[in-house]
Amino acid sequence: MLPALFVSHGAPTLPFDDGPARDFLRGLGKALPRPKVVLAISAHWDTEAPTLTTAAKNSTIHDFYGFPKPLYDLRYDAPGAPEAAVQVGELLGKAGLVARANARRGLDHGAWVPLMLMYPEADIPVLQLSVSSQLGVAHHIALGKALQPFREDGLILASGGFVHNLTALDWNSGPEPEWSVRFADWMDHALTGRRRDDLIAYRSRAPEAARAHPSEDHILPLFVAYGAGETARRLHHSATFGALRMDAYRFD
């Protein structure tokens, strides 16, 4: 079976930014068996209820502003995966999780930035599943558990940020602050130790949780990947712009 992955997508400029996280993602696709389809769960699609894209062809959403023009020229118009959307909907339904459909939405940068680095040919069908931040951690773990059979020939790619506090960034790329390290270390031990109860209650148990994630949207994709596998292994860890952690995990 293919793994479920969590990757940190960083700033939208990651395809242009020289650094260890970009190099890691460029090698990640080559290190995995080629999937027939990719299910992307991005922090940048947050809906009231789980929602799936069903378009036959994806468009590229540039869901950011104030960046250099070359970034807006990038496109990742991978094929859609409407048949896989039916499969995913059925898997979620069996677990009592009703998924809505969206036939118009394309791929946001939380999906296409890592995919562009992993699979630059844009020739693997991709669909997206939204997060629902108001439903909490346990809901997203349940989503992942329901999706485990998808891994037989599909890749689950959850994309967010391991530490994501935009107000705390150092645009001069200074050293990572100690509070970011403390949170990341606690999360690593909880993930690899399969400490489900601690993860569900991470807001009160993890050091600096509210500082590391003022809002939960960028950490919730991680819990979908966690639910989709039985073991966790960290594949990459680095920080950019000070406290923007770029960690990645594999769940088998």
Task: Explain what you see.
The chain is of the alpha/beta class and 252 residues long. The protein has one domain: LigB-like (Protocatechuate 4,5-dioxygenase, Chain B, 3-Layer(aba) Sandwich), CATH 3.40.830. It has ten helices and ten strands. It has helices at residues 20-31, 69-73, 82-94, 109-118, 136-146, 178-192, 196-200, 202-205, 209-212, 220-227, and strands spanning 4-8, 37-46, 51-53, 100-102, 126-131, 154-160, 232-236, 239-240, 244-245, 248-251. The strands form three sheets. A six-stranded mixed sheet has the order 5-2-6-1-10-7, sandwiched between helices. Strands 3-4 form a two-stranded parallel ribbon. A two-stranded antiparallel sheet has the order 8-9. 46% of the residues are buried. The model has no long low-confidence stretch (mean pLDDT 97).
